[in-house]
Amino acid sequence: MVEPNPKYLDEVRSILFNSLPKHSVRIYLFGSWARGKAQRISDIDVGIWPLQALPPAQLSRLREQFEESHIPYPVEIVDLSTVSPEFRERVLKEGILWNDFENASPSPKKL
After folding, report:
1. Is 87 helix (H, G, I), strand (E, B) or coil?
2. Which of 1, 26, 100, 103 is a Cys-bridge partner for 40, taking CB atoms 3.0 to 4.6 Å apart?
């Protein structure tokens, strides 16, 4: 693994915004990268909360894109519509909102 570098978050955002319908999904960065505590072994945790359920095939394709990318960290995609309310609330409270339902473009970067 390489040292944590925020440029990889830009690559994650690019893949997400090119792959998901921005107008119908909230996207959150959470975990150690959102807290500014990422280490060389940290994965990048991304929560997606779609207005309507995303087909499993679309989520699989998205995960494959990250596996095939040059991002040297595992990217963990979590569908927030399928997790416990407690976990979802924690992500909403502690995460960084990258895209909201009503936005046509990504939220400003906050690192």
Report:
1. helix
2. 1
Name residues whose C-beta falls within 8 Å of residue 15's C-beta, 6 or more positions apart in sequence: 62, 65, 66, 69
Comparing C-alpha atoms, which of 98, 4, 8 is closest to residue 47? Answer: 98
Dump pLDDT digits (tens) for 69-91.
Answer: 999 999 999 999 999 999 999 99
What pTM did the predictor assign? 0.85
Which residues constitute the domain of residue 57?
7-99
Tell me if 59 is assigned to some domain: yes
Four-point Cα dihedral 75, 84, 32, 111, nearest 10: 90
Instruction: Kindly state whether residue 111 falls inside one of the protein's structural domains.
Output: no
